[in-house]
Design a protein that fits this description.
CATH superfamily of the largest domain: Type I PLP-dependent aspartate aminotransferase-like (Major domain)
Structural class: alpha/beta
Strand order of the largest sheet: 1-9-8-10-11-12-13-7
Distance between the termini: 42 Å
Shape: globular
Radius of gyration: 22 Å
Bound molecules: pyridoxal-5'-phosphate
Oligomer: single chain
CATH topology of the largest domain: Aspartate Aminotransferase, domain 2
Strand content: 15-25%
Helix content: 25-40%
Amino acid sequence: MIPAENPTPVAIPRALSPSQSARPTPIAVVTHEINARRMTASQVATDGSADTEACLRRPVSSGSTMSAGHSRSRFPLPWIAGVGRASRPCRATFASMVVTGAKLEKGGGSFEGIKLLLCENPLPPLDEAVAAAQRELARSNYYTEPHSEPLRQFIAKQLGVPERLIHINAGSELILRQIFDRLGDRVHLLTPSYALFPEIARRYTETRLLPERDFALDLGELEIPDDTTLVAIVNPNNPNGGTFDMSPLPELLARHPRTQFLVDEAFIGLGGHSVVSLVPRHPNLLVTRTLSKAHSLAGFRVGYAVLPEPLADDLNEHNDAYPLARPSQAAALATLQHEGEIAARAKQLRVWTEALAAQIRALGARTHPSETYFFLADFAPRDAADLAARLRERQILVKPLGDRRLGPGYMRITTALPQDNVRFVAALKEML
Ligand SMILES: Cc1ncc(COP(=O)(O)O)c(C=O)c1O
């Protein structure tokens, strides 16, 4: 098994020459020597990727071929460790791999139409959050308390964990990047997963979640390569919105004491059971969370993590002492005091999501179950990228999944407000 490897994860896609960037397979594979010399992006592109293409086109001896950063699975099993399997000559030649060109869709910030793209909560921040943020604006000549102390204290109390284990930062993506910087040498992912992870892991192996099982997996059956540094579990999972039964986790933690387990609970307010209370008892469990999703504060950028003490200390010591802007900290504190309202909104979002999924099914697409406010739909034999491009012309943004192993029909759909869902379904109906 050759794991996917991202030794110099920055900049490589940007430096591809025009001819290379026109290639359909946005992958570069580099040798260890190239990595060791810490080549520039253009060197990697020149020295590595030409051979890569040939290597990727060769038939594989077993398992899967590489394509757009993913292996095309031929395994009937629910778990497959080994992105980047290649035929033997390739294994010998290329010891490591850089997944490039898998550019995340980050856009849409100033888009005025209907956004079903980024798993954003269509409901605005709570009034209390907006009022609290406004009150802080005029005091923004002052820093916040170091490490966002009041928020840290509040979260610690709310979760029943020691304050020292909490790290707060401007969005959980930043925290995830810091964690992967430290622990992302050999990552194991449950894929399809949050698109950031394959981008920031230096190497990764994967367990495939299968559409025929509605992306469900018994974590008790998870097989993890021995040298794995970090296992990343997203619960509820993005992109499908399903949850995992986390009860096998303590046993997994005990079975792999040298592996760190990250549970990304970005969507926990919408479904699933949190494992945050286990962190103080398990030195290899990390939980990240965000106020971007259930709490409708994505634009305020508030994320936090509950971590084993040495890692929490490390992140807090090597971070801006004032990670949040005053309005963001105030909005977060105000929102967290209204968890009942947030839970009621989550319920409402679920109702809209279910109704939207039913309408999509009525149009002939297949949908997968979700416990969040987004879900996966398969429009096969239609091409989701093509549908998305035509929807964009009508001011509607959706996310074609672009996972070649699932097929081109897959689209992740986030509920909008009901009136916008009506427009979305009407537009789709005209196209299908
Ligand atoms: C699974 C998951 N984790 C983390 C994040 C990052 O959220 P933020 O940086 O807004 O906290 C996202 C954003 O979509 C996500 O889907």
